[in-house]
Every structure is written in C-alpha cells, then in structure tokens.
Amino acid sequence: MELSEDFAAVPDAFQRLWTPHRLVYITAGPQPHADECPFCIAPSLNDEKSLIVARGKTCYVLLNLFPYNAGHLLVCPYRHVASYDDATVEEVAEIAALTQTAMRVLRKTSHCDGFNIGMNQGGIAGAGIAEHLHQHIVPRWAQDSNFFPIIAGTKAMPRLLGEVRAEVAAAWPHP
Questions:
Q1: Can you name the CATH fold of 18-171?
Q2: Rounded distance, CA 43 to CA 57, Å?
Q3: How far is CA 169 from the centre of its chain?
Q4: Which residues are catalytic?
C-alpha cells in the first residue's frame, strides 16, 4: 500500500505553476454580489484588505485584484461614475496626478522600463467593471514577454499582492 506522502515525488504528465497569491481568493470567502460595486466598497475597508496604496481627495489608487503584471494599479474616483466624460474636472485632474505619482513610485519600487496606461470604457471595450471608471497603470519590463496568458490562459505573478501593496504604499509620497 502506497502512503500519501509518497505521491509528491511521483512524476505525472502535469507541470505545476505555483501561485500562492491565489490563496487570497480561496480564503476571502464569498465575493460581493454582482450588484455591489467593488470600487465603491473598497474605500470603506482598511487599505490592506482593499489593496489601496494611496487616497486622494476625489480618487484613490489600488492594486488590481486580477493583475496583468506585478504592480498593476488602478486609479478610481470615489464617486460611482461610469464614463470618463462624466467625471468632474477635479476627478479628471486627480486621476492624472495620481497616475503620474504611480508611475514614479512603480519606477522606484519595481524598476520597470515602461507602462501601459489606459481605460476600457464600457463592457464592449473590455471593461471588467464597466459601471465604475478606473484607469489601469501596468508596469512593463524589457524582458517581460509573458506568453502564458496567450498560450496557456495563465498569468505568472512573481510576488504576492500584499507584498506589492505594502511596498508601493510605503514608497508613496505623503503631502
């Protein structure tokens, strides 16, 4: 009779991609209902739980829960508004200012070589949460050609979300 502890050494046809950061999805419990906006809920939680790295007057910055790359940030207005052209002048200005600061902080903390910055406006344009405006700031590196999402439907994340949040929050300049 084989013992279960022997199974770890038994080769099989599967390759393993260890993703300890996914444990947060398992231990978090039930997800918010579809009618509850996560970007409206996040500011009411503590920064660690909601992955917020900085809070401004009209907008805040948080890590993307489903990042493309480590350090993938989102800038969101507190107000529940869907479209960039419905944002106030103050919100648009703060989105821009927070985006600039995020870029500086990510360059310092992650030594990235560039960024993808943008907004997907509406579900048809690819917005996962189309009802609440948010801008993506995705750090990129010269050697980050990650083909897992294309060929295997998998994203390789080298760091835990909590670690990245703590590092970016600590490096964020305070007025």
A1: HIT family, subunit A (3.30.428)
A2: 12
A3: 13
A4: 134
CA-CA distance, 5 to 78, in Å (whole number)? 50
The tokens 């993703």 sit on which residue? 19
Contact 76, 94 (CB under 8 A): no
| Domain residue extents for the chain | 18-171
Per-residue pLDDT of the chain (175 residues; tens, 9 = 90+): 555 455 555 566 655 556 665 555 556 555 555 568 999 999 999 999 999 999 999 999 999 988 888 899 999 999 999 999 999 999 999 999 999 999 999 999 999 999 999 999 988 888 888 999 999 999 998 876 654 454 455 566 667 788 888 999 999 998 7
Instruction: Record the tokens describing residue 142, joined without a space.
Output: 């010269």
Count the residues in the chain: 175
* Strands, E assignment, 12-158: 52-55, 59-63, 73-77, 114-118, 135-140
Residue type present at position 12: D
CA distance 84 to 87: 5
Q: Are 67 and 53 in contact (CB under 8 A)?
A: no
Beta bridge partners of 52: 62
Scanning the structure block, which residue is given the tokens 């419905």?
Answer: 86
Contact by Cβ (8 Å): 54, 16:
no
